[in-house]
Structure formats: structure tokens, C-alpha cells
Diaminopimelate decarboxylase
Amino acid sequence: MDHFTLKDGELHAEDVPLARISKDVGTPVYVYSRATFARHARVFRDALSGLRRPPHLAFAVKANPNLAVLRLLANEGYGADVVSGGELARALSAGMAAKDIVFSGVGKTDAELVQGLDAGIGQFNIESGEEGRELAALAASRGQVARCALRVNPDVDAGTHDKISTGRADNKFGVPIGHAPALFAELSRLPGIELRGLAVHIGSQLSDLTPLETAFAKLGDMLARLRSEGHTITHMDLGGGLGVPYRRGEHFPEPAEYGAMVARITADWDVTLMFEPGRVIAGNAGVLLTKVIRVKRGLNHPFVIVDAAMNDLARPALYGAWHDFDAVAPSGERMTANIVGPICETGDTFALDRETDALVSGDLAVFRTAGAYGATMASSYNSRGFVAEVMVDGSEFAVVADRILPGAIADAERVPDFLG
Ligand SMILES: *Cc1c(COP(=O)(O)O)cnc(C)c1O
């Protein structure tokens, strides 16, 4: 459920008409609903209320790193799962406690490892023996001890898009689960790290709980084996990945079903469970508001050319992803159209042959379910600048990211003297 609904025939975010945001801030603009974010954060937490111990919830910052979003989630008791030094800095400046931050990612640099050590973050999810040895050496040389989990690759096909599948044996993430006993034996002897658990994250936008259950069961077997070999395991990180409906009528597992499955599989684990939800919290808490530039006649269907483009919302170009598209003030008439952006690339297509509200030049429309992996993936391709972001709270709204104009980006560039 979200808070982007028609009131008196006009689409609102909570109690704010989207037309008002367009008038004040311009388009394209991402619009987030505070109430929806908070609701999703609570639903996910409630779904895990059947666990033996309170879980550690770390929002996957890459899904939506806006500082206002992170502050909102910090207020809801969430920590952060970060995958770069930049995300770590954001989580801290949004007010998340260092101890509630988990650092994931296959390519953490020495500088990023040191940044995490200096901040005193809660856990490093190390993704290789090489990284574990480097982190141990860095921590030991600074007289520190880094709390770590070893991310394993369970070789489970998440059944999602190839580009967001992370748990198959040939993906770059984690270590093959069979390597865990030898690595635990080696790494847990090193000064500088406290290896306290395992982590897994098999992919994103999962539409079925079965692959997760398979992965968690494998993790449970490995937990038992590591304990039998004398290791102390106190934390197990189950990652994120729960999918959300992008298309009206699509069915996805509810957080409560996920929570029940987790409670069943982990009943005798006797650890603190950690979670890294991203999309399930943020996805339906945002829309991308756009204006129709013009409607161009096509061979079969008209092209509705909107002022948002693949640089603002990359998912359709990147993954062929579907976003529901609705007029802000639907007339009741319908049309079949191709929805495209202005960028000079055929990939800049949001939808082909789409049945949608009838639209004409100047009309406003939204791409729904744009709160996750939306603004965070924006680029300035075609020198279009970076899209603005707004958060709504009841009848108020605030700009939470300024539009960055093309000129400001060009200001960071230089023509060297040797070019005259
Ligand atoms: C991207 C990512 C997540 C979040 O995935 P969602 O599908 O958005 O829940 C969690 N953990 C790690 C390690 C990730 O890379």
C-alpha cells in the first residue's frame, strides 16, 4: 500500500497535489512519501517480530541514499548496509549510529576499509579471503578489531533478472560456500578481526521465497558445521532481496510470509539475525513525476515524449523493467502509446505498446514504484543534469535534493592550456 492516490480526480502524494510540486520544483522530479516509507519500515520490522531475538535491520543504502530518506529510516530504528565509502559517509551524516552500519561489497579499497575502521562500524561483510587478510592487517596495525561476517555464495539461482542475481556460483559475490570452513579456520586466527558469522544476499526483486529458503537452509547447515569445528557464531546476515509489485495485479510474497519462513528456518540458530532490505522499503514509497513534452505521431502508436529520461530512471533501459505509468489528472480516456524520453538513444524507452491514460502535451504523469534504484542511478547523460527529489509529509513537502543543472556539472570540467 502507498500514499499516491487520486483525490478529486487528481493524483496526490499524501495530501499534496502532484501538480503543486511540478509548479514549485519543476519536472522531472522524484516524489517520496514519508508515510509510505515509515509504513514499509514498520511492516518489515513487524514481519520479523516472531524471531527469538530482536533482529538488526540495515537499510540497503544503494536503493535510495537520499539523506532525508536515511534520516527517516534512522528515526525508525534502522541502520544501514553500505557498499562504498560514499554511502558510509551518508549513513553517518544522516544520523545512523556507526555500530548499526554494515559494510558490504566485493571491491572495498584499503581507504574504505580504514574509513570503516575509523568510524567504528558494526560489521564488515568480507567477500573474499584476500579482503579478510587485508582488513585484518589494517585493523591490527591500528590496534583495532573489526567485527566481520564472511559473505558466502550459496550457488542458488534467485530466479530474478541476470543483472541483479548475485548468488549463483559464477557471480562475483561472496566466497563459494564450500570454502567457508577453511577460510573460517584461517581468518578467525588472525589478530585484527573477529569473525562472528556468515552473510548471504542472493539477488534483488525476488518474486518467490523458495530460492531464499534454499539459501538460508544451506547457511544453517554451514552454521552447524562451523560450530562443530569450534567456531563461535553470534550473527547471521540474511541480506535483502524481497521483491515488490511494479505492475498492478502482480503478486509478490508479503513481508509477513517472508518473516514466517525465516522464523521457521532459523528457529534453532541461536544468533542475532541481520537483514538488509532495500527495495521492499523504498520501491513503492516514490514516484517519478514527469511532464509530457509532446505527443508525436508514430507508425503504429503515438510516441508520448516525456521530460524524464533514462538518465533519471535507468531501470527500463538497464533491465527492461516495467513501471506503471499514470496521468496525474486522468480524463478517463485511454490510449495505446510508446512512452519515451528525449535522449538520443533508442534505449531511452520506458514502455512500448502501453495502454495508458490519454495524454497531450503539457500533461503531468508519473512512473510509479520509483523510490528504489531510481534517483540513485541517475546520470547526466546528454548533459541533462541531475533530477530533483522531494519528500512529502501530510500536506507539506520539502525539496530533499536540488536539481543539479547541466552548467554546475560543466563547472567541474576544465579545458587544459595545451588545447589553446
Ligand atoms: C543491493 C543489496 C541489498 C538490497 O537488496 P534489495 O533487493 O533492494 O532488498 C542488500 N544487501 C546487499 C549486499 C546488496 O548488495
